[in-house]
Design goal:
5% strand, 9 helices, two-stranded antiparallel ribbon, single chain
Amino acid sequence: MIDITNLFKKVDEFSDKKKYHEALQLCSEAIKDNSDNQRLYKKRYHIYLKMGQWEDALKDMDIVLNFIPQEPADFFNRGRTYLRLNYLQKSYDDLTKAIELGNYYQDHYYTEMTYFFRAECQLRLGRFDEALSDCEHVRPDMQTFIHPKIKSKDDIVREANARIMP
């Protein structure tokens, strides 16, 4: 039986030192013997993200969601990854699911950030009114990294309004 706490500690140590290949190897080896442990796939998903291996990360998050398809954070994470790859409809669907599940479970930890990313997704899909609507759920000073730059709520609102009223 694997000691998941110690394994994660070692993986995090490698990751903190940017030794992602070593961290990935530890997770992959553990998964071979514990393929039913969704926490291992989730950990490896995050390592793949740090390595810029987006498609591999998505494969692991798909497995996680097959285990537990009711966790808002997992849909949020996969939705952000889809957005990074410009898989806009898939991103929109996952971010919407994260909002729905958060509302259902009264788990609003990710809600504001989910609306923020979904607003960016709506913007890229050409749904400008919907992007503005999503921004109504976001505080005025919200900003975060959305590849390839830091983006604020004001940036999204300005861009949507410019596209609506040229």
